What does this fold into?
Amino acid sequence: MNPIFKIYAVSVVMALGILGAFGALQFVLADGSSTAVVVQNAAPSVSAVDLTANPITLTENTSTTVTITATVTDSNGCDDVFTSGTILATVYRSGLAATSSCSADENNCYRNVPLAEVGNTCTGGSDTTGDASGTIPLWYFAEATDASSTYPTETWQVAVTARDATGDSGTSTDSTPPELNSLYALNVTSAINFGTVPPGTNTGATNQPATTTNTGNFKIDIEFSGTDMSSGGNTLTAAQQKYATTSATYASLAYTLSTSPTSKDVNLTKTTASGSPIATTTYWGIAVPNGQATGTYSGTNTFTAIFSSN
It folds into this structure.
């Protein structure tokens, strides 16, 4: 055999042995697979709803501000509500339905009260929770729910609805809703000035009217009382004054003024709308006895609102 050929054959065998030890030669090509996911929108939720003060005490003849607070959570991020959505509240007497049959009414239903973020409690990004607050003025004639009211088994409630950018929403109410107290109040708008009356005479058919407006949230009667009128050291007793709910001559006026409170059944109803007060008029006269010293006499007549049972 040719020696050269022998050497070559051995070299091939050695080469194959080396490849066998380290594995066959391979060619690897990379490939990819796309990924996709749809992040579902989650409806926001509302918690820690609170309506204050508790109880609610109104202010006569004007409005009283109450405060609404709530916590809003959205697992898509709280900005989904605080930046891109809305937070609205309805404040209402609990016998009504806040989200359906509760029509806007100054007596019992205050709708679409906006709530705004408190401070920077929703920081954006992955933050899911923030606090909200808002206020609403309740009118002095809002319906009471305390024990002496027409609605003693009810309260005043608030429903807070958070709505996100897609329109999904969550609603919650106050777990400890407050009472709204009865308010018996009135305003007498005119002074009673009898003018000049000679001794031994009275005001006759010339009555002085006093207009009384109900400035509370319940039908009222009135207690009347008065002080003796005085001028220097001289006195004209309260009993010289008479009054009635209809105009009449002095002799026909129904009631004599007393220094002690005396209740009269006037049934003065409350108003049901701001700007439309409910009022009644009483008519007053006075007699000056013979021998009364000259002078300008003055005193105070007091009108007090009290509960009307009929």
